[in-house]
Design brief:
single chain, about 260 residues, alpha/beta, Trna Endonuclease, Chain: A, domain 1, 2 domains, six-stranded mixed sheet, two-stranded antiparallel sheet, 8 strands, globular, disordered N terminus
Length: about 260
C-alpha cells in the first residue's frame, strides 16, 4: 500500500515497502516539470524543456553558469534551441517553487578599485535534487570527484542557510576581476560578516582556501565593512583547528546554529 501525504509543504511517500529516496526525488522533479511549474504563475511551459534545464542545472551546480550557457546545454540537439530569456523565466518559476536558490554576489567596500563580478552561483535548495535531476548514482559520483566537490559545496551552502536563518543572515559569494573567489560570505543584518571556503578535503585544497581567505581579508576595506568575525575553511573530514592568524579549519559535521 502506498499513500502520499504532505508535511511542511513537501509531499512524502508512505509505503509498506522501502522506496529509494532518489526515486522519490526524481518523481518529484518530474511532477514539477509536468504540472507544478505551470501552476506557479499560470504560464504554460514545455515539460521536456524544464526537464532538460533541471539536468543542466544539475551539471552546473556550484558554478556561475550564465543564462546563455544553460540555454545551450539544455537545448542539446533539439531543432528549436532554448532562448536565454526562456531560461530566465524557467529559473524564476523554479525559485518560486523552492527548487533552486542561487547564491548572489557580495558587494563589499574594497581598499582599491577592483571590479566585482555579479553572476550568481547556481544551487538547488538541496544537492540531492541535483543528483536526482541527473539521474546518476553513487558509483558515478565517486568516479567524478570534481563534480562531487561542487555537490559538497552546495551541501555546505544549504546547511549554512538553515543554521544562519535564526540570526537573519544573508549568504552570498565573492569574485573579483583578478580571479579571487570565496565560496560563501555570511552577513548579519547589523553588518557583521564571516567568510568560508569549502574544500572536500585534500591538503592542497585546504591551503588554497586559506590563501583565498587571507587575500580577501587584505582586499576588504575593514574601516568601512568591519573586521570579519570568522574566516574558515569548511572540510568534509578531519579535526577542527584554528591557525595563529585566526583562520579556522572546520569539519562540516561540527556546523550548527
Amino acid at each position: 500500500m502506498i499513500d502520499l501525504v504532505c508535511r511542511g509543504g513537501w509531499p512524502r511517500i508512505v509505503s509498506d515497502t522501502p522506496v529509494s529516496p532518489q526515486r522519490y526525488l526524481r518523481n518529484y522533479l518530474d511532477d514539477i516539470s509536468r504540472t507544478d511549474i505551470a501552476q506557479v504563475d499560470d504560464v504554460m511551459r514545455d515539460p521536456v524543456g524544464v526537464r532538460r534545464l533541471l539536468a543542466s542545472l544539475g551539471r552546473n551546480t556550484g558554478t556561475k553558469a550564465a543564462y546563455k550557457t544553460l540555454a545551450e546545454d539544455a537545448s542539446g540537439d533539439r531543432e528549436v534551441p532554448m532562448h536565454p530569456r526562456t531560461v530566465k523565466g524557467y529559473l524564476q518559476a523554479l525559485e518560486r517553487l523552492f527548487v533552486i536558490e542561487d547564491l548572489p554576489a557580495w558587494k563589499p567596500h574594497l581598499r582599491s578599485r577592483i571590479a566585482l563580478r555579479t553572476t550568481p552561483v547556481r544551487h538547488f535548495v538541496c544537492p540531492s535534487l541535483a543528483v536526482a535531476a541527473l539521474r546518476t548514482n553513487r558509483a558515478r559520483l565517486r568516479a567524478d570527484l570534481e563534480f562531487f566537490g561542487f555537490l559538497f559545496e552546495s551541501l555546505v551552502v544549504r546547511d549554512l542557510r538553515i543554521y544562519s536563518q535564526f540570526e537573519g543572515c544573508q549568504l552570498s559569494h565573492y569574485q573579483d576581476e583578478y580571479g579571487l573567489e570565496v565560496d560563501v560570505i555570511l552577513e548579519r543584518a547589523d553588518g557583521e560578516w564571516a567568510a568560508f571556503e569549502v574544500k572536500l578535503g585534500s591538503d592542497e585544497g585546504i591551503m588554497e582556501g586559506i590563501e583565498s581567505l587571507r587575500e580577501l581579508r587584505d582586499r576588504v576595506d575593514t574601516n568601512r565593512t568591519g573586521d570579519p568575525v570568522k574566516l574558515a575553511v569548511i572540510t568534509a573530514t578531519g579535526v577542527g583547528v584554528e591557525l595563529p592568524d585566526g583562520i579556522a579549519i572546520i569539519p562540516v559535521t561540527t556546523l550548527g546554529p
